[in-house]
Amino acid sequence: MNINPIDEGRYGSLEMRRLFSKKFKYQTYIEIEKELVIALFEAGEIARHDVDIIIQKAEHYDPDLKAISDIESSTRHEVAAVIKHFSSLCGEAGKYVHFGATSSDILDTTTAIQLKKASTLLERLLTELCELACNHAFEHQDLIMIGRTHGQQALPITLGFKFANWADELSRHLIRFRQIKSRLFVGKLAGAVGASAAIETDDISIESRVMQRLGITAGNISTQIVHRDRIAEFICFSALLASSLDNIATEIRNLQRTEIDELREPFGLAHQIGSSTMPHKRNPVLCENICSLARLLRGMVIPAMENMVSWHERDLANSANERFIIPQACLLLEEILQKAVTIFKDISINRDSIERNLREFGQKYMAEAVMLELIKHGVDRQVAYHELRSLSHLQDSDEFEMLVKNNLLITNTLSISIIEELLKPKNYIGHCAEKAILVAQNVLNEIKNG
C-alpha cells in the first residue's frame, strides 16, 4: 500500500527513485562489503579462496527483500539483517563479511554513493535550465516590457533582461553545486567510533582505497559517522535552489494572470484541463507545483541542521528522519528542476499583451525620464520631481503624454520633439539588452569551462 506520493510515482524520475529503492540500497551495502574484503585480502588478512567466494556472490547479489525483512523483524537492525542474509549465501567465507566494519560505515558510504549518482541527474537538469534561460536572454534581449516593483508598473526593461537575471542566479547555484561535491561524496570504513581498531593491519590507506574504488572519497577523519555538516550543506543547497525556482515560478504565475497575460507556462490545448467545472481556465499548475514543493523542501533544512548534533561519537537521533529528508530532497529537487525545464522549453510569450501593458496606463512610467531631463536643463530636482508626481497622480493621468505636453514648466524647458523622445520606452531601457547578452554569454562560458 502506497501512502507517500513519491511511492506512487507522482514525483521524481524512475532513475532517481531507483537510487533510493531498497534493492539498490542493499546491493550497494554488499558492493561496499565486497570492496572491503578485497582490501583486506590485499593487506594479507583474508585468504584468496574466501575472497573469491564473496566476490562471486556479491556480483550476483539480488536481495530477497522478504527474507531480509523477516530477519530484521527479529534483529531490529536493518544493516545486520542484510549482512546476515548475504553471509548465509557465502558459506564459511561469510564470516569475513563486515569484518572490522560497523553499520555506519555501510550506511554513510551508501548515502555518499546515492548522493553522487543523484547529483549527476540534478546537475544535468540545472545545466539545461541555465542554458534555456540564456537562450531566452539572447532571443528576447530587445523585447521591451514593463518592469514592476511592489506589484506596480515601474520602468521599462526587456524580457531578455529578466531571463538573464534568472540565468545569473541559476548559474550561482550551479557553481555552488560543483563546489560542495568534494565535501558531499564522502564515505568511511573506520569501524566503531572511527578508530579503525578492528582492522588489524598497519595499512592505514585501506579506507581511502576502498572509497576510491567506489568512486567517492574518505574524509580526513570521522567518528562512528560521517559528520552531518556535509549532508546539512546539501539540504541547505537544495532549499536555496528550490527557493530560486520558487521565485521564478511565482513571477511567471503573476505574469500569467488574466489582467497581465504576458507569459504563459505550457498547456496541453488538446486535452489538459484547468478546472473541473470552469472550462475556460488555464491554470499555471506547473509553476504552482514548483512553489508548493519548494515549501516542503525548505522545511527539511531544520532536521538536517539538527542532525549535526550527536551524543559523543554517535547516536541514532539523525537516522529516522534522514530516511525521509535525503531521498525526498533529491526527488523533490529533481521534480522542481524538471518542471522548470518543461516551462522554459515551451513558455508562451504574448507580445500583444506586453505591448498593451506598455500603453494601457498612459506611460506614466516614463515620468523619471522626463524628470531627469528637466534637471539636466537646470530645473531644481525637488521641483521637477513634484511636478511629475502631480501629473502622474491626476485622475486623468492615463493621458500622461497630453498632460506633459500641456504643462508649462515642462514645455518652457523642453521642446515637444524632446518630450516625445523621452516618452518612448525604447529610449529608456538603459543597458538591459547589453547586460542580457553579457550575462548569458558569461553563464554559458561558466557551464562550458565548469
TrEMBL record:
Q: Which SUPFAM superfamilies match?
A: L-aspartase-like
Which intervals hold domain Adenylosuccinate lyase C-terminal? 362-440
* Record's keyword annotation contains Lyase: yes
Which cellular component appears as one GO term in the record? cytosol
* Highest rank taxon of the organism: Bacteria
* Annotated EC: 4.3.2.2
Q: Give the molecular function GO annotations.
A: (S)-2-(5-amino-1-(5-phospho-D-ribosyl)imidazole-4-carboxamido) succinate lyase (fumarate-forming) activity; N6-(1,2-dicarboxyethyl)AMP AMP-lyase (fumarate-forming) activity
List the catalytic activities from the record: (2S)-2-[5-amino-1-(5-phospho-beta-D-ribosyl)imidazole-4-carboxamido]succinate = 5-amino-1-(5-phospho-beta-D-ribosyl)imidazole-4-carboxamide + fumarate; N(6)-(1,2-dicarboxyethyl)-AMP = fumarate + AMP
Pathway involvement? Purine metabolism; AMP biosynthesis via de novo pathway; AMP from IMP: step 2/2; Purine metabolism; IMP biosynthesis via de novo pathway; 5-amino-1-(5-phospho-D-ribosyl)imidazole-4-carboxamide from 5-amino-1-(5-phospho-D-ribosyl)imidazole-4-carboxylate: step 2/2
Q: What is the top EC class of this enzyme, as a single word?
A: lyase
Tell me if Lyase is a UniProt keyword of this record: yes
Query: SMART domains of this UniProt entry?
Result: ADSL_C
Which BP terms in the Gene Ontology apply to this protein? 'de novo' AMP biosynthetic process; 'de novo' IMP biosynthetic process
Keywords linked to the UniProt accession: Lyase, Purine biosynthesis
- Listed NCBIfam families: purB (TIGR00928)
Q: Family, per the entry?
A: Belongs to the lyase 1 family. Adenylosuccinate lyase subfamily.
Q: What is this protein called?
A: Adenylosuccinate lyase
Q: Which organism is it from?
A: Gynuella sunshinyii YC6258
